[in-house]
Automatic annotation (TrEMBL), chain A:
It holds the Pfam family SBP_bac_8. It comes from Epibacterium ulvae. Residues 1-21 form the signal peptide. Keywords: Signal. InterPro entries: SBP. This is Putative spermidine/putrescine transport system substrate-binding protein. It comes from the Bacteria.
UniProtKB/TrEMBL annotation, chain B:
Keywords: Cell inner membrane, Cell membrane, Membrane, Transmembrane, Transmembrane helix, Transport. PANTHER family: INNER MEMBRANE ABC TRANSPORTER PERMEASE PROTEIN YDCV (PTHR43357). This is Putative spermidine/putrescine transport system permease protein. Residues 71-260 form the ABC transmembrane type-1 domain. InterPro entries: MetI-like, MetI-like_sf. Signal peptide: none annotated. It is found in: Cell inner membrane; Cell membrane. It comes from the Bacteria. It is a multi-pass membrane protein. Belongs to the binding-protein-dependent transport system permease family. GO terms for biological process: transmembrane transport. GO terms for cellular component: plasma membrane. Gene3D superfamilies: MetI-like (1.10.3720.10).
Amino acid sequence: MTITLLRMTLAASLLATSALAEDAAGFRENFLSGAAPWETVTKRAADEGTVNLYYWGGSDPLNIWMDQVVTPDLAKLGVTLNPVRITGTKDAIDLVLAEKGAGKALGAGSVDAIWVNGENFATLKRQDALFGSFADKLPNSAHFEWDETDPRALLNLRDFGLATEAAEVPWSGEQYVCAVNTGRVEHAAAPTTFAELRTYLEAHPGKFSYVKPPHWLGNTFVQAALYAHNPDGSGATPFQETLESLGAAELARLIQPGFEYLKSIEPLLLGAQSGNIRYPEDGAALNGLFLNGEIDFACQFGLYAVATNLANGTFPEGAQSFIFPEGNMIKNKNYLAIPSNAPHPAAALVLADYMSSVAAQASKLQFTGMPAGIDPWTLTTDEAETLSAAAPGYIGVTQAELDANTAPDTNATLVDVIEAVWLDYIERGSADPFDVIVARAVSNLSN
Amino acid sequence: MFLRLHRSALILVAVFVLGPFVPLMIQSFAFRWGWPDLLPSTWWLEQREKSLLPLAWDYVLSPYSRILEATLNTILIGIVVTALALVICLPAARVLARETFPGKHAFEFFLALPLIVPEAAIGISLLMVFIKLGLAGSYLGIIIVHLIPTIPYMIRMLTAVYQGLGAEFEEQAMVLGASRWQVLRLVTLPMLMPGVIAGALFTFLVSSNIFLLTFFMGQGKIITLPTLLFSKISGGTLDASAAGIALVVTIPGVLLLLLSERFIREEAFGKGFGS
């Protein structure tokens, strides 16, 4: 009985893949070369009928938004959204690569679009598992700044320093913002520089911690510290280069003061007094410590995190954002990527275009507090107003303050090294000279 | 005296079993519950009207949580896996219990292997094979992998009952003139019933709790209660809706246990061993 069922499934899957899959490669060629008008994409998308979007499913508001807004909107375009909620983005990447390894080409895989950024995008790119440069060919691509000469285009063109080459389309923009519990500390007393943070911790030992690297929330805190302690005073600038062009010795020189700072605050972090330093594992654990008053400040990506976390009860009532660290609040975007073996490439393009529309961005902002991924200066006044009206609002900071203190993310090739150095130097407390630690991290990664 | 001791032991067991559920239940009704508050400072019902989006149980019971789909999938897969495991294991257990053949011990060890090899190792290598076969992401694929960790349990339980049964009862019935069919229907099956039910119950419970293999084979497209729960609690903390889902996940197991408890005592033991 099992055998018959097996045969039936095999036959069915063969039938399904044969029809549309055959011309998927031709469709891709036509679209990427600009030969196919958008109507052929929408028509093909309706024929394909479904789009499988893989995204981190741990957020209730995002899940509700997908079901309540995206699903009906896409249905009007003839496409059924299949929102696949995953525990970690890496699972979807592994799936794409496993299927690619098993010889599943365009039209035959199972992932149409993934919510990614940074390392996961870099993996797809390195493994040549991306559909191609689609983002600047969507009708709604006008909502993004693509002009390389405009510095504001940086976040559309580079993802953690790696060129996106329009193989992913920006979905949301984020900034690393810290929150203070004003029920415990006055807003004015919150530190604005790393030196002030150390002074605060000397007076209140144990009342702070950051998410443990290699989690990206922890990496970002470390990167901000490295920018602020850059011995040349040039902040984030040298960290935009690749590891290759920078070299291990130069990197070691640039990051040593920052790491020494991190080492110096370690005895003042949460739990250090009882000899058991606690770095929260992820954003949720960090929020838990913050809600429970174990730490006075919580740093993570989230321009509107205070407003949304107050609305769902994960932040204490007195939570407010504050500017920290001055001039080095890292800003980045996250994206939707289409893998090279997407089963429904046209439907994936329709999804990507829909997600880049003002209406979708505004309702996402309203439902989930995820800031817009489209660039407001490319919009008409009405559209820009729709967007800002949907924002949950800042608590404790202003847009001007946030804009005045932004810094770009670190190049993805350096992030790996910085991660490894943190684990060696801070977590394991290696006694080797600092440049040896960095050289070891570099050589381990190149193997 | 004995009664009192008996009762306090029962209470102790109840505390151990039900204790962990108490914070879970409170959490499922909480809006904001921070240390050092003994009870939530704000309850879900106080915030219910103010919130734009459904919170806590409103979310769990809404279609957005997909809890119904996950429950139906879990039950469907569990039933099919149990039925298939029975079909495979009943004859196998009979042979293992009654016959001797060269390499029997090695074979029995081989049957227990899936319990020793880590699930992740089996999962990722099977995924490669299943992708090639087109079984990944299908119900059939999940059902097949669920047979791997469940068959060892089922075989062991059925072998044990077959050993306890002995061939004499069947021979006696035949001597008294029963046909093969009558022997199976009136003697073998009723006497095997407690083992079959215990094995089926165990198989269903194991199947409905498998996360990793289900996730690999379902590719996130087919959700069951464990995969749904994991995607909610992977953040490391338990919010109200995650607590609600965790509570719902325990319901099938509890129901089944209560049901089979009754069934084993009254039906099987009652009729099978007719005292």
